Records
---
Amino acid sequence: MDRLIYSMRTSLDGYTDEPELAAQAIRAGLVDEFQMIVCPAVGGGGKRYFPDGVRPGLELLEERRFGDGLLILRFGSLRNGDPSDRTS
């Protein structure tokens, strides 16, 4: 857990592109916001967005649609208080 917290603190605004580190933070309940980019294309395999066995309660905070079909979604975690109090 100490490694996880240190890694998150030293990254820019808690952002990480390391799937295993992110999975540990999600399982530990340390993530209070998720941003998803949805593209209108089929890309094959890859990592799941949430770790196996984790189904966090989420509230949609923002939705942005673009003409080419791209969709950006911002969700707040219901596990860590009221997500509507957060700013973008």
Note: Residues 2-85 form a domain with the Dihydrofolate Reductase, subunit A fold (CATH 3.40.430.10).
---
Amino acid sequence: MDMKRVRLYVVYRIHVYECNMDFSCIFYIVAPEQLEEEKVYAQTDVWRLGVLFYILLSGVSPFKDEDDTQTRQNVQFVRFQFQHLHSNTSQEANHLILHIFKKAPL
């Protein structure tokens, strides 16, 4: 449980730095159900790990867009692109990302 908090704190600090200390940019790592203030599931934590995984494989945030509104919409509608991933990314990694980035069941 403590390790989970440390990892989320590190991600939070990375994104706060990336957004020039604007604390509203935490939505870069949250799941759609959190943006919509709905019930969260175990998959919500997996989503955050998926964001980290995608960043490690591509060097960019999976849902980042030109402005915050579009980025929020990308998260809410689960819109991301595989073209940002490094060319030598395995099929297994691509499948894992597909399985992680799904809206939690209603």
Note: The chain has one domain: 2-100.
---
Amino acid sequence: MTQIASIDTKKNAILALLNRPEGATIAAMQDATGWQKHSVRGFLSGHVRKKLGMALHSEAAEEGRVYHIVANGGAKRGAREAPSARSALRQSTNR
């Protein structure tokens, strides 16, 4: 298996864990991927929330914080959409 295929498989493993009714802890995601805690948290923030646009919910539990993908996938109230590349360029040249 190539390294890229291995990474995609690990991403899919985390998404499958997050889609379970019981959700997943950081430790469970570490076990599934072999990643360190900071890598799992970075994946949740950068890939799941930002790149895929999925909404995550977390709650404290006995075994640690449990993460779930929210079914409606809606963003938090009051959250702004990221500016398009064109509007970001326009804003940067106006300064």
Note: Confidence is low (pLDDT under 50) at residues 75-89.
